[in-house]
Amino acid sequence: MTYEAHRPKTGRAAGPGPRPLWRQRDFGVFWAAQTLSVLGDSFALIALPLLVLEATGSIARMGLLTAVGGAASVLAAVFAGAVVDRVDRRRLLIGCDLVRMLLYGLIPAVWLFGPQLWLLYAVLPLCEAVGMFFAVGYVTVVRGLVGTDRLTEANGRLNATAAAAGVLGPLCAGLVAAWSGPAAAIGVDAGSFGVSAGCLLLVRFTARAADDAPRKRPGLWGDLRTGVGFLYRQPVLRALTALLFGFSFLTLGLNDLVIYHLKHDLGHDDHTVGVVMAAGALGTITGALLVARVRRRLGFGRTWTGAVAVCGLAFAGLGLVREASAVALLSAAFLACVGMAGTCSMSLRQEVTPEHLLGRVTAAFWTLHYAAAPLGAAVLTWAAQRRGTAPVALVAGACCVLIALAGLFTPIRRFGRPAPRRRTRW
Asked: CA 269, CA 247: separation in Å to the nearest integer?
C-alpha cells in the first residue's frame, strides 16, 4: 500500500481553501492544552535544578537528576510507540497529564516538612516516563487534526506558543522560587497539568481508519523493531537518527550548565536565572515562527544543518561570557536553532510515515537518538564541576558544529532542496 493510501481523507485542513489554523476549534483547544503542558514543564525545568542546587550546591548532583530522568524517558520510549498505536490516544494524553499533576503535587506537599532529595529522584523519572508517552501521543494526533499539507505550519505554531509558555514559565518560576522557594514553583507546575487535561477533554480527535490497525499485533519488542526497520530503510531518517544521537549526548545537560554558570560563576539569584532562561526561550518562539518559511526557501537539508551549526557556536560561547545578558542572547540563539531543527525533523517523520506506524516510528526515533543523552548529561556536569563551565561548553559546542558538518556528507544535504525559480518569458 502506498503512502498516499494512508493520508487523512477527511482532514478538515486538507481540502481547498482551508480555514486558518486558529479558527479550527479542535486544533485550537489542543493547541491551548499543549501550551499549558509546556508551561508546567518550564516551571519544573527551573525549579527542580534549583531545589537540588539549594540543598547540595553541586552541579554534578543536578546532572545526576537530569540523567536519571533522561534514562527513564529513554526506557519509556522503547514501549511508548507500541502503546500509543494500540490505545485510545485521547485518553492516553489526558491520563498522562493527570498522573503528572499528582506526582509533581507530591513535591511541595512533602517539602513542607523539610527537603527530601530522594523524592526528586523518585518523582522525576516517573514524570519523565509519563511525559514520553504524552510526547509520542502528541506527535501522532497532529496530522489527524490539520491534515498532511499543513504539518510544518501546525508544528511551527504549536512550538511557537509552547515557546511563549517557555518564556513565561521560567520568568514566573524564578519569581515564585525567589519569593516562596522552588518547591512552590513545582506546585504551580502540577496545577498546569490539571488544566491541560481539562482542555483535552474538549478535543474531538480524528478516528483512525479501521484498516490502519494490523489484524495480528507483534509483541512490544517486535513493534520497536518495526519502527527501527522503517527508520533504517529511510536514508534521511537514518542519518538524522545517527547524528542526533551525538547531538543529544552533548546537549541534554545544557540547562544545568547555564543555571550553574549564572548562580555559581556569576553570582546571580534565582530571579535572574528565571529572567535569563525566559529571555533565552524567546529564541524558540522566533525559530518556531520562521521555520516553515526558512524550510520553503532553503530546503530541509540546509535548514537542518545550518541550525545545528549555529547551536554549536552558541553553546561554545555560553561558558565564556560573563554578563547575564550575553548568556540570555546565546541561549536564545541556541534554542531558536534547536526549535528549527526539531520542527523540521518532526514534520519530516509525520510526512513520510504511514499513520499506523507513526507512534512506533516516533518512539524508535527518540529511543535511538536519545539513548546516550542521560550519560552525556552526567558527563557534562561532572566535567563542569571538575574543569569549569567554559572549557566544557567550548568542547561540546565544537563537537556540535562537527555534527552539522558531518550532515553535509549524508543524504540530509540533498533532501528537500527548494524548487528552482522559473524565469518568466516576456
From this structure: 30
pTM score of the predicted model: 0.66
Distance CA 314, CA 311 (A): 5
Q: Which CATH number fits domain 22-201+216-407: 1.20.1250.20, 3.40.50.620, 3.40.50.2020, 3.40.50.300?
A: 1.20.1250.20
Q: How far apart are the first and last CA of the chain?
A: 45
CB 174 within 8 A of CB 118: no
Burial class (CB in 10 A: 0-12, 13-18, 19+), 351: middle
| pLDDT at residue 5 tops 50 | no
The pLDDT tens digits of the residues spanning 206-245 come to 665 544 444 455 566 676 678 888 888 888 889 999 999 9
Judged against a pLDDT cut of 90, whether residue 395 lies above it is answered with: yes
Please count the residues of the chain.
Answer: 426
Residues ≥6 apart with Cβ < 8 Å to 257: 59, 318, 319, 380, 381, 384, 389, 392, 393
